[in-house]
Amino acid sequence: MILGSEPVLRLGFTFDDGADKIAIEKDALMLSLSTGEKKALYILNLLFEIEVRIKAGIETLLIVDDIADSFDYKNKYAIIQYLKDLSEDQKFKQVILTHNFDFFRTINSRFVRSDHCLMATKNSSGVALEVALGVKNVFIKDWKPNFFTDSRKQVASIPFIRNLIEYTKGHNDPDYSKLTSLLHWKADSLNISVGDLDGIYQRTFGGTGTSVDPAAKVITVIHHEAGLCLTAATGINFENKIVLAIAIRLKAEEFMVSKIADPAWVAAITRNQTPKLLARYKMQFSGGTASIATIQRVVLMTPENIHLNSFMYEPILDMSDEHLRKLYAEVVALK
C-alpha cells in the first residue's frame, strides 16, 4: 500500500484479437485470472502509481509485504532490482516485510544494510524486533569460531559438521556414525565425550583446539544446555532451537528404546529412526495415548530444527522456541 494523499489510479483493460477490440470491465477480468495473475495485475497498478509519484517528486513511504511470493526466480529478482532502484530515490522510503528467508538474504546482499535488517519474534508477551543475526552463514561466522568455548553453539554445530562429513566422506565414515549417535539414541550415545567431539572437529577442519572439559559426556552437555534454554531470554535463538530439538528427540528415543526393550531390533535401524521407533511403540503400547501424542509431536516438530545446513535454515526462523520449550518439558516427564 502507498501512504499518501493521492488515490491509486485505475487501469483500463482492452482485449485485442486482430481487428476485433473490446473493453473489459475490471470485475469481469478478475473472474478469469489466476491468483498469480491477479497479484501481477496488482503490482502493475502499483508500479504505474509509483512511476507517477516519481515523476511528480512526491515523498512516499512504500510498505511492501511478501511481494515476491508466488513468482519464479527471474521475476523475483526483477522485483528486487526495482526495489533497489527505488531505494536510490531520496523521495522514497521503504519498509519491506517478508517470511521468505532467501528473499530476505538477497535484499540484504543487494541494497539493505545489515543494521537495517530486523527479525520479528513473537511470544506470549508480545512481538519484538531484533537486529538479524546469522543472515550470512551463522555457522561460519558465529558457531565455528566459538566451538570450543560455548557449549550451546558446540551442540548446535553437530548437524552442520555431520552434513559436511556426509558430503565429503559419506555415511560409512566413523565420525559420521558417531555424530549420528548424538542426534539419535544409539547403543554408544551415552559414551561419547566432548573430547571425542573435539577430535571430530579437528579431523574435519584442522587445528588443535580443545574444550574446557573434554571428559564430559556430550549427552549430559546437551541436556544441561537444553535446561538453560528453558529460562533463556526470548528471541531469535538459532542455537537454542537446535539444542532443544536435539535434546527432545534424544529423550523421546531413549524413552521408546527402554520401553521396547529390543536392542537388536533397534540396532538394525539405519534411517528414519524416530518414526520407526514410534510405530513399534504404538504397536506394543497402544494404550499409551498421552505418550504417543507427545512423541508424535516430536516426529512432527524436531526434524526441520535439526537437519539443517548453512544454506537453508528458514524453518527455525519462522517460529519462536516456546513450542520447543513446552515439548521438552513434556518429553522429560514421560514415564
Gap between N and C termini, in Å? 54 Å
- Report the helical percentage: 40-55%
SS-based class = mainly alpha
Rg from Cα: 26 Å
Which runs of at least 5 residues are low in confidence (pLDDT < 50)? none
Order of helices and strands: EEEHHEHEHEEHHHHHHHHHHHH
Overall morphology = elongated
How many domains in all?
Answer: 2
Mean pLDDT: 86
Number of strands: 7
Strand arrangement in the largest pleated sheet: 1-4-5
Number of helices: 16
User: What percent strand?
Assistant: 5-15%
The major beta sheet can be summarized as:
3 strands, mixed
Name the features.
335 residues, mainly alpha, two-stranded antiparallel ribbon, 7 strands
Question: How would you explain this protein's 3D organization?
Answer:
The chain is about 55% helix and about 10% strand. With about 325 residues, the protein is mainly alpha-helical. The chain has two domains: about 1-110, no CATH class; about 140-330, no CATH class. The strands form three sheets. It has a three-stranded mixed β-sheet, covered by helices on one side. A hairpin with a 2-residue loop joins strand 6 and strand 7. It is elongated. The model has no long low-confidence stretch (mean pLDDT about 85).
